[in-house]
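This entry is listed below:
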Amino acid sequence: MRSFVPFSRLSYKGLGEPLCFLAFGPSATPAFYLALLPAASQATAGVAAAAAATATAGATAVGPQWPSLLTGAAAQLPLPPVSSLAWGLSLLVGASTTTILFTSHFHQIDGDRAAGKHSPLVRLGVERGVSVLTASVVGVYLLAAALAACGALPALVLGPVLLLSLGPAKSLVDYAVTHKLDPARLALLKRFACMWHIALGCSLVMGLAAARFCTL
């Protein structure tokens, strides 16, 4: 557990939100995309076969031999490319997920400051924090529109996104603006962020399914 302690201290330097975005966005989403590709299962089988062959060869040699997945047949396995759609979705999912973490600090700014935790909201304050939250939510929809305009996201997805997630997005921003001077009420802000995140995710799934159905 000690090896993980330095990484946990990064949140005290205000890096929690950027790391959250990278972990749940550009890192996790493309990884799941690659894992679900048919070629991924073939590549996994090839790596396992190469490792088994290397281990068998090493067992017959003199002295201990460690199998390597970076030599032989395993090194020649092609990596399937990540589509522009997967990269675009990773940005949207990463942004909405990070919003949950960002809103969870609104009601504990004084406690974070006393503990020496320099979270974004400790640096920004409530007023500017609400402005950043508003800009971030609006930015997600502008990003979705830009992705659709450049062809990375099917245009048909925008309909469900606006229809299903715009209401929770407005509720999130309105609640933050209305209760920004009441820390007790701001403790509930992360629930609005969770509802927006769920609505956005479901709308993306529905829009992608509709786009896939229309192309059949």
